[in-house]
Structure formats: structure tokens, C-alpha cells
Amino acid sequence: MFDLIILYRISNWCYRHKIPVIPSICRISMFLFHGSRIPAKTQIGKGTKFTARGMGVIMNGDEVIGENCQIGHHVKMLRKNPYKHCAHIGNNVYISSGAVIMGNIRIEDNVIIGANAVVTKSIPEGCIVGGIPAKIIGYTKDLDYDLFSNQKDREGFESYLIDKRNRE
């Protein structure tokens, strides 16, 4: 079975070269095998990947997605009235699973969007956002690791949470 990005690339290439039937076959295959909808006219940059083979990803077709992005499963990119277009996403953006991006917004480079976040406003470069509606909760420059390097060399577990409530 093909990954979603491969079906998209075939569909987009045929769409740009005015080959009529293949994009429809790819669209049906995306829906049947992945439960996803990515129209052929969507612009997705090189190096962009879908996690979990792109299960449940829904797009309208007017999105522009930059290079080297990672998009989680069940991500939705929706149009918001009265805007005509959808999101414009920069390079090196990580969109976690279940995120919803609504409206004609701009997400700059090096942004991390948390799981199940609902993004309704544009996000400046280098931010980490999360919540409903999404708010800035940190900055990527403060991270002690590179999210896109996919390091697997650390041993052990994370430290325990510390209870900061007043104990009486």
C-alpha cells in the first residue's frame, strides 16, 4: 500500500500536466486506504511527510505547505468564512496529531503545533502553540533537541513531574 504522500505526488503531477483520470483514481485511493482527502491542486513542498501514513488527513485544496514539514494523522485544514483561501504553512513545521487549522492564516517557519490544537490565528516564526484555541506556550529556540533529527540515542526515562501545590 502506498503512503499518502506518494499518492498525492502522483495526483499533483497528473493535475499539473492536465492528465484527467489519474487524479480521480488517486483521490479515491486516498479515501479508501487512508480515510484522507488531499486535492491534487494542494501545494506540498519537498521533504514533507505524513505520520501514520497520513490516516485521516483532510485538506480543502487551497493550502500551501512548505518544505520538510511533518503532519500528524487526523489533521484537518479547513476554510473559514468569509475567507476565500486556506492556510499557508512555512518550512520545518511540525503539526501534531488531531490539530485543526482554520481559515486564511499564515504559519511561519520552525513552528510546532501541539496535539489537538485548534489554530484560528496566524503563528509567528519559532513558536510552540497548543490548546483550544491555540496559544503560544513556548519557543523552539528553547528546546534542547532538534525535533526533525529523529534522535533515538537517549537511554532511560523522563524525570517525574513535581507536585508544586502547597501541602498542608
Describe this structure in words.
With 168 residues, the chain is an alpha/beta fold. Helix content is 16%, strand content 20%. The chain contains 2 helices and 13 strands; from the N terminus they run ααβββββββββββββ. It has helices spanning 4-16, 21-34; strands at 43-44, 49-50, 64-65, 70-71, 76-78, 88-89, 94-95, 100-102, 106-107, 112-113, 118-119, 127-130, 135-139. The model has no long low-confidence stretch (mean pLDDT 85).
Strand and helix map with partners:
Blueprint: H1 4-16, H2 21-34, E1 43-44, E2 49-50, E3 64-65, E4 70-71, E5 76-78, E6 88-89, E7 94-95, E8 100-102, E9 106-107, E10 112-113, E11 118-119, E12 127-130, E13 135-139
Parallel strand pairs: 1-3, 2-4, 3-6, 4-7, 5-8, 6-9, 7-10, 8-11, 10-12
Antiparallel strand pairs: 12-13
Helix pairs in contact: 1-2
Which features characterize this protein?
168 residues, alpha/beta, 6-stranded mixed β-sheet, 2 helices, 20% strand
Q: What gap, in angstroms, lies between the N and C termini?
A: 59 Å
Identify low-pLDDT runs: none
Beta-strand share of residues: 15-25%
SSE class: alpha/beta
CA radius of gyration: 18 Å
Run of helices and strands: HHEEEEEEEEEEEEE
What is the helix content? 10-25%
Major sheet: 6 strands, mixed
Envelope shape: globular
With strands numbered from the N-terminus, the spatial order across the biggest sheet is 2-4-7-10-12-13
| SS element count, helices | 2
**Got a strand count?**
13
- Average of pLDDT: 85
